[in-house]
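Entry 14: structure prediction run for TROVE domain-containing protein. Input pasted below.
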Amino acid sequence: MAQTDAEKKLLRILHYGCEEAIYVPGCRLQKKFYEEDKVNQLRSIIAEIEHEKLFDIIRKVMREKTSLYPDLILYVLAECARSEIKRPDALKAAEEMCTTAEYFLLFFKFAKAVSPYIGTGRACRRFITNWYLKKNSLELAEMVGETPSYRGWRHADLIKIAHIKSTDPATAAVLTYLSRGAKTMIDMYGEDPKAKEVVSYLKNVDNFRKDGDEGSVIRTIETYMLTVSHLNFIHLKKKQVWIALLRRMPVDTLLDYIHLLCKYRMFRKGRMWDQEFLTAVCDVLCNVNSIAETRLQPSRVFIDLCTYQFAPKYKLELAAKSLRRLAQKPPAISYELVTNLEKLIIATYDNVEPTGLRYVIAVDNSDMHKRRCAHLQYMMTSQAAAAIAFQRSGPKYVLASLVWAVKQKKEVDVFIIIGTCLQFQGLVGKVAELRSKLLVPNFRCQSSAISLSYHPCHFMTNIEYLITDPALQDKK
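Run finished. Output tokens:
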């Protein structure tokens, strides 16, 4: 069955937060995606979609993990929970999707923002109670110990809303820890044999965040298999603590923190490279099982590689322009680390799932070596084009690839144009003409502007990154 306009718009919102076929990268909050006019648009879209179909779409996007911003899925669910008719199914879907403490707390952050009285009803209190009480006590302790709060919301806030109580001493100890602190938990359940394991774990996690002794911190990490999320700011500059964490760290988590490791000069030992630390990091980057489990994509690793290689130099150039005090040259780059990141890019190609579509990609590289990406200023537009196209460059005439496909009678499903400042005058008619010769019924043309550019076809404004279909608006 063909999708309705409302369903297409909802899918776009779930994937990147905009009902139009325009993607602007960056924090959704900073880009004002939660402002009143956007909320009103979302509510009208939700109202147009059939009740059952609405939740099928939301579940599908969450299950397939195709959203660039999973927060948006919880935001849409919170909007659904605002309606009394949709609330039971919205809470049921939230119960399925809130598998982590972060998602659980974030859902209620959004829900309280759109409907301040949510949580006072039986259905919502039942959802909160089930989330805490249906879990094994040790599993619950591990989740809340790692994430006691998130985005300004604490577990204590939800426990007070639902008035949760448990007859199981171990679970009751976790709830007491969350609502009244570690000291009260120890006083009430420290001697209870049924709660001994949970109390010991939470006590050590609580002490870990305050402990300044490096040896004690490392022993706690190894005993309880703590993660980087448990770290406090006092541990961030301790190299041996990071080495202990790296032994079980997933590769995507390492990439999240690699800029911090560079900032605190973890790779250096005086004027020399710290070979022990470099080896520990490279072992994580080469972990085949972790690469497969995290489903890491080549573009993500490529961005981190460019940031590591070029960010210090670019910051130095900016500092020189603003006449600030600065170092005479950027910090050295580890050849070993760069080599392993490049190998990681190759390894992650196995994670790219085929779409079943036939692509022709045109790259307008006429001025790409002079411009930087608007959102990722450490990356040149030529590098971004290579990451998108999986190729180094394209012909200067932007439609040459499509003309070639027509002459060769190639069947093409998707034609992608990548450039820095794409102007569509004269381009639309030519694409439409070539499309008619391809004889492919569902042919789609998408353009990607990867630099801050003036675009006359969309609101006459400066944009950062655009994916749209100038010739085939009816085919979306």
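Notes: The radius of gyration is 26 Å. Will compare against the previous run tomorrow.
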